[in-house]
Amino acid sequence: MRYAYALTAALLLGGTAITVTSNQPLGAQTAQNEGMQAAAPRGAPASLADMVERLQPAVVNISTRQRVQVENPFAGTPFGDMFGGGRPQTRQAQSLGSGFLISADGYIVTNNHVVSAGAAGASVDSITVTLTNREEYSATLVGRDPATDLAVLKIDAKKPLPFVKFGDSTHARVGDWVVAIGNPYALSGTVTAGIISAVHRSTGGTYDRFIQTDASINQGNSGGPMFDMNGNVIGINSQILSPSGGNVGIGFAIPAEQAIPIIDTLRKGQAIKRGYLGVQISPLGDDMAESLGLARNRGEFVQGVEPGQGADKAGIKAGDVIVRVNNRDVTPDETLSFIVSTLPIGSRVPIELIRNGKRTTVTAVVGQRPPEDQLAFSRDDQDDFSQQDDKQSSAQAGQQALGLAVLPLTPTILRQLGLEQTVRGVVISAVDDDSDAAAKGLRRGDVILSANNAPVTTEAQLNAVIKSATDSGRNALLLQVLRRGQSPAFIGVRLRGR
């Protein structure tokens, strides 16, 4: 549901003068467009045909087949036993998008959302890549980064494949011409053109630094390439801004400068690592900026500091205003989170801040950013973990053998739960209502200390105990559970389908 670029009304842009002459007798009719030739916009080629002809074979169509679990409409009715016993039913679904080859041996770049399950309870069964010559290949997902909406696929062909290379998006300017090729509404090989409307555009995400374009963007173009006039990829079409779901001339592409290091890492099969300071921040309001003598849109306010992380060790405190990090100004376009995420883990960086109206500089060591699902529970220390709701965790719980979704304990979560920092285990983030765990009273915020008397501090350890139990023919697990304000208790929980 994302993509980029619009058709250019070249015929209306050149200020073309048209002179019509005729030697025909008076009263003879002449077609309005006879002898007409429009001038190309200044700086643009008269035609994009030669460039498109070379680029088009490297752009591919990507489709997925998915299984989606839906609620049984007869659940809870007298007909429930007749129609699957009221259990959720499985339906088939399909998604379409675009991508492009970046190597002759079949590596492909696309958007993460193109190859991800489109709904809670859904799973992707297969990914198919179709070339412009209609050859089809089964694709393997090499790696993905949901935070930046990027993914890398691989197909195996018996011959070298056409591919394109990245350009330098740092030189992109507002007003530059761009071309996009993709598959909107499954119309393969569609070419559109337009101009860059803005750069460094944020739509609210931590890592948003989009190139905005006025070109036509529609469903199915997600993951397709944005080319400059030299035929180099300077962006990956990703999102649209539209009240109706159709093109309104506002589309966004991930700039090549941001995509290249992530794609290179994913291509190697490695996980994406980002810098982290351990601060909760908020934008600096106008009144506060004025009281501190700061210009508008400069700096971010520190709401809290996570103990033991880089900011805490550097002496940063709640109430500070961070204005510069590693000699880069903190602005709405260059947010603190974005700047820090790009810094090497373990590097020592100067941080300029304002405290009590005075500027000072501290040095912090950049840590590694925790997984996003953990951060989702630690962005506000005032929130009670056990009272929050998380649809993604709920969907995961429905697919687990215990009917539980769990996360590693962090110092922040322990504080939110009112537990000692010495507690070790995994915290329940969601419980499936139809599971035995729910029937036994387990709930979000409970901490599992052990399973079958084996300590568990990660989801992988818990899954290993579950596998050992099922391999031994056991139908249930003995969990030691800790709840705030209570002593640990042992609870037997039956596994699904056992």
Q: What this model shows, in words?
A:
- Helices cover 14% and strands 32% of the residues.
- With 498 residues, it is an alpha+beta fold.
- It folds into three domains: 1-7 and 46-272, Thrombin, subunit H (Beta Barrel); 275-368, PDZ domain (Pdz3 Domain), CATH 2.30.42; 385-494, PDZ domain (Pdz3 Domain).
- Strands 5-4-1-2-3-7-6 form a seven-stranded antiparallel β-sheet, with helices on one face.
- A hairpin with a 7-residue loop joins strand 8 and strand 9.
What characteristics describe this protein?
Pdz3 Domain; Thrombin, subunit H; 498 residues; single chain
Give Rg in angstroms: 28 Å
Strand order of the largest sheet: 5-4-1-2-3-7-6
Name the beta content range. 25-35%
Percent helix among the residues?
10-25%
Distance between the termini: 40 Å
Q: List unreliable stretches of 5+ residues.
A: 1-23, 379-383
- Look at the helices and sheets and give the structural class: alpha+beta
Say what the CATH topology of the largest domain is: Thrombin, subunit H
Number of structural domains: 3
Q: So, CATH architecture of the largest domain?
A: Beta Barrel
Q: What is the CATH domain class of the largest domain?
A: Mainly Beta
Count of helical stretches: 10
Active site: 113 (charge relay system), 149 (charge relay system), 222 (charge relay system)
Binding site for substrate: 113, 149, 220-222
InterPro entries: PDZ, PDZ_sf, Pept_S1C_Do, Peptidase_S1_PA, Peptidase_S1C
GO biological process, one term: proteolysis
